[in-house]
Write a structure and sequence with these properties.
The complex is a heterodimer of chains A (503) and B (349). With 503 residues, chain A is mainly alpha-helical. Chain A is built from 18 helices and four strands. Chain A has helices at residues 2-21, 23-43, 69-72, 85-94, 107-112, 128-180, 185-219, 225-252, 260-282, 285-289, 306-336, 339-345, 350-380, 388-412, 416-433, 448-453, 455-469, 476-500, and strands spanning 52-56, 77-82, 99-102, 120-123. In chain A, strand 1 (52-56), helix 3 and strand 2 form a beta-alpha-beta unit. In chain A, helix 6 packs antiparallel against helix 9 and helix 8 packs antiparallel against helix 9. The two termini of chain A are 29 Å apart. Classes of the chains: A mainly alpha (503), B alpha/beta (349). Chains A and B meet through helix 1 and helix 12 of A and helix 4 and helix 5 of B.
Chain lengths: 503, 349
């Protein structure tokens, strides 16, 4: 038993001797990752690009398109305005601008033709992420422009409603006069004809108001207040026209008279129309054009800074890479210097070699992890709302798993270079697939299987939950890490046993 | 091609030539076995028809011999003749393709930890951590053999002192000389006091003084009771061994004591006739003696006679030369170098 312990600890003592002699190595292993963490947190601007934009406005432009310049200024930087599209293109190609926005010459005429107003955006971007961002961002700006256009249309509709009221005001004295002169057929005919003439624009105004309101309804399903009212207004005006036409027909017909009840109907309808028109005018066009307003409420217990959010993930990634690389290179080095023959001819058992290496490199990674967590908390102000013990367990399991993966890599690699390359590939895979850059939900199957094969996926989720939420929402992540660690430990021992067999 | 042509390179100063390398005192012969054999009742190493191929390439071909305890057994042969492969088979690193090998009665491929603890192995080349000191490497290897802290400290000091590298114990292994690295490798095979030590090419790349020193250490190990199985490509180092196996092209071409091999290679003993000038008639007269099997004469003053037994042939040769009035100063046994012996053995049909 004591001999076995001595043999196992041989690797630990050897490693201690190496570490003590190489303080620069410790510095590189611990301070290096922290500096990367610090630089990442402080140096990366997550606010997104503020594209340098050249606006191309035709010389003979009709109408104005003003996409909220005071608000857009925070998002784009207008570096020039020109009417020469070719020159703008050249500037774009030279990299003097990120975006060229080409405004149409006569937007109003385009709308009148029932077509979309084209706003052509030119970019010269090879980065697909930036391109996607620009597309979404500029799409937002176009939506903003559309909203302003809708608001303008609604304002015009409301102006039409004002016209309705004006018409009603003109029509009422004529109708009153009609009632008063009901015995004078000729006069009645003239007055009804006047009413018809006065009410003629009413139909167009009501239809315009209804059309504008319908567009709002189309944009916002379920929002029916203004739309229903303008529809009703339109219908009322149509009914009114029917009644007035009936009255006209009666006056010009064989009976030569008209019913007072028809006049009452007309008056009643006019009153209803008036009320409806006033109702429509009470809703501001800004509300109609953008009825929903985002009021975001985050129920998370804590909203970290950008650095705070990414720090646990970076920490997990760095530790995983450290452990995998150390594990992969340690065994490869044993092979490289020919030490394997010494081990195979000595009484040391494969399990003792493996456990000894786990102890050595596990201790190193654990020390690095503890120092990194401390520096992250103290210097970067990243909180740990959950239990430090859980953080330790998560990091311990991550280190054990990553070391196992590293040892496995070393056993299947034929050289140090190959082991280092595979370690680097795993780091790259972890950056892209472990939820560090993109949420795992955005990764399609079967590629998502890669995410679930990476220890960092579980460690990042656990670390972020424990440190920033103060709770472990997915305890199964720890079980998966523990199971993977055990699996790779056993596989490493098996592979080492195979390595110990005579050739 | 016989000894006559093989002896063409003889130096003028025969005794000086014979003294390189220095002769080793033979162990006393007791009923065909050395006294050291008695240290062990059974053979330490035995091979029966052992062959090893790597793919199509036959590296070791049908080897059969035994090594008994308390000896230095030298496996000698040129580079690439299969020495290292054979040692690796004997320490359990490589399995024979056919045949049976046993070390201390056990198939090396089936060594347990306990059996491995009984042997030492110093592989060819330097295999330790270059960034650790001599002492740290020693500590690491001693720990691998399960030697406890206190015993380890004492034993490391003993072995490093024995191999004269104690003073360099604090130097990084990468910064010590090649000779020291070889001695450190040997030291690492000795901390656990093995009864059987395999040392692969311990003198490779060393200067003659260091080579002699290494052999001193190996002899001392033998004298302390260990069995040493050593390989070398320096043919002349056969002189340092109690038993020698000569390997060429994967096959064993001779095995026995150095004396037995020399006699076997030359077909007898050689007498050098010193201090005279000889004629063709002298040579013919000597050739006609029944005790003389071959004569090597350079046409002037170098004359070597191969005989079955130098002790019985010397009087007859002396009488012929006196009768013919030939002047000479001495008749003495001549020991050809093992390089010559090796060439003779290799060139045999």
């Amino acid at each position: 038993m004591s001999s076995s312990l001595t043999r196992t600890l041989a690797f630990f003592s050897k490693w201690m001797a190496e570490i003590v002699r190489q303080p620069a190595l410790m510095f590189t292993l611990i301070v290096g990752p922290f500096l990367i963490l610090l630089a990442f947190g402080q140096g990366v601007d997550i606010g997104g690009p503020r594209p340098r934009t050249i606006v191309v406005r035709p010389v003979d432009a009709q109408g104005e398109i003003q996409p909220l310049p005071e608000e857009l200024n925070a998002h784009i930087e207008v570096v020039g305005e020109t009417s020469d599209l070719a020159q703008a293109r050249r500037e774009l190609e030279k990299g003097h601008a990120d975006v060229v926005a080409v405004l149409p010459p006569d937007p109003i005429a385009v709308i009148r033709r029932g077509e979309h107003i084209p706003i052509q955006i030119l970019t010269n971007e090879i980065d697909p992420v930036t391109k996607s961002y620009a597309k979404a961002y500029l799409g937002d700006q176009v939506a903003e422009l559309n909203q302003r256009t809708i608001a303008k249309a609604i304002a015009e509709a409301q102006a039409s409603v004002a016209d309705v009221l004006k018409v009603l005001n003109e029509a009422r004295p004529v109708l009153n006069s009609l009632r008063a002169n009901q015995g004078n057929l000729q006069s009645a005919r003239t007055q009804v004809s006047d009413v018809k003439r006065i009410l003629e624009p009413l139909g167009a105004a009501a239809t315009a108001a209804d059309t504008a309101a319908r567009s709002v309804k189309f944009v916002i399903p379920g929002f029916g207040n203004a739309a229903e009212q303008t529809k009703r207004l339109d219908q009322l005006v149509k009914d009114l026209n029917v009644t007035v036409t009936k009255l006209d027909n009666q006056l010009n017909g064989t009976s030569g008279g008209f019913s007072l009840s028809d006049l009452d109907d007309i008056n009643s309808t006019l009153t209803t129309i008036e009320q409806t028109a006033k109702d429509i005018q009470t809703i501001p066009p800004e509300v109609l054009s953008a009825p929903f307003q985002l009021r975001l409420e985050n129920v998370a217990p804590f909203v970290p800074t950008f650095t705070g959010f990414y720090a646990p993930a970076v920490l997990a990634l760095l530790l995983q890479h450290l452990a995998i690389t150390l594990g992969a290179l340690s065994m490869a080095r044993i092979r490289l210097i020919g030490l394997m023959d010494l081990l195979r001819t000595s009484p040391v058992r494969p399990s003792e070699v493996v456990i000894g290496n786990y102890l050595s490199y596990g201790t190193l990674c654990a020390v690095a992890g503890a120092v990194l967590v401390a520096l992250t908390v103290v210097l970067l102000d990243v909180p740990v709302f959950g239990s430090y013990a859980l953080v330790a367990v998560a990091l311990g399991l991550l280190i054990a798993t990553a070391l196992g993966v590293g040892f496995f890599i070393s056993m299947i690699s034929s050289s140090e270079q190959q082991a280092a390359q595979i370690s680097m590939l795993i780091l790259l895979g972890s950056i892209f697939f472990s939820g560090f850059v993109f949420s795992i939900d955005r990764i399609a199957w079967p590629i998502r299987a890669v995410s679930y094969a990476l220890p960092s996926t579980y460690a990042i989720r656990t670390m972020q939950d424990v440190m920033l939420r103060g709770t472990l929402r997915k305890p199964e992540d720890l079980y998966i890490l523990a199971g993977t660690a055990l699996f790779f430990f056993l596989v490493t021992i098996l592979l080492f046993k195979r390595e110990f067999r005579p050739e | 091609m016989g000894i006559i042509r093989a002896c063409n390179g003889f130096a003028d100063n025969v005794p000086a030539m014979v003294s390189t390398p220095p002769p080793v005192e033979d162990p006393p012969i007791t009923a065909g076995r050395t006294a050291a054999d008695e240290l062990w009742g059974a053979p330490m190493v035995s091979l029966e028809g052992v062959s090893k191929s790597f793919g199509e390439h036959l590296v070791v071909n049908d080897l059969s011999f035994e090594v008994r305890g308390g000896q230095i057994f030298g496996l000698i042969g040129p580079s690439g003749c299969g020495k290292t492969t054979l040692v690796k088979m004997l320490v359990g690193l490589v399995s024979p393709t056919s045949g049976r090998a046993a070390v201390r009665g056990v198939d090396p491929a089936k060594f347990t930890a306990r059996e491995r603890a009984g042997i030492g192995y110093a592989p060819q080349g330097f295999f330790l951590y270059p960034t650790l000191t001599v002492q740290e490497n020693a500590k690491f290897v001693a720990s691998l053999y399960g030697i406890g802290f206190l015993q380890r400290k004492r034993r490391i000091r003993e072995v490093l002192t024995f191999l004269e590298i104690w003073d360099a114990r604090k130097r990084l292994a990468k910064n010590i000389s090649g000779g020291m690295q070889r001695r450190l490798s040997i030291a690492c095979a000795l901390f656990h006091k093995p009864g059987l030590v395999f040392v692969d090419e311990p003198t490779s790349g060393l200067d003659p003084i260091l080579r002699a020193k290494v052999w001193d250490y190996l002899r001392q190990l033998r004298n302390e009771g260990s069995t040493v199985f050593v390989t070398t490509q320096h043919i002349d180092e056969a002189e340092y061994c109690d038993q020698v196996g000569i390997l060429n092209g994967g096959s064993l071409i001779a095995v026995g004591t150095p004396q037995e091999i020399r006699r076997s290679a030359l077909g007898g003993e050689v007498i050098a006739v010193e201090g005279g000038t000889y004629t063709r008639e002298d040579v013919v007269a000597l050739w006609e003696l029944p005790e003389v099997k071959k004569v090597d004469w350079d046409g002037r003053d170098k004359l070597r006679l191969m005989v079955d037994d130098a002790a019985t042939a010397t009087p007859a040769v002396t009488e012929v030369l006196h009768r013919r009035g030939t002047q000479f100063t001495a008749l003495m046994p001549y020991l050809p170098s093992f390089d010559e012996v090796f060439i003779e053995l290799v060139q045999r049909p």
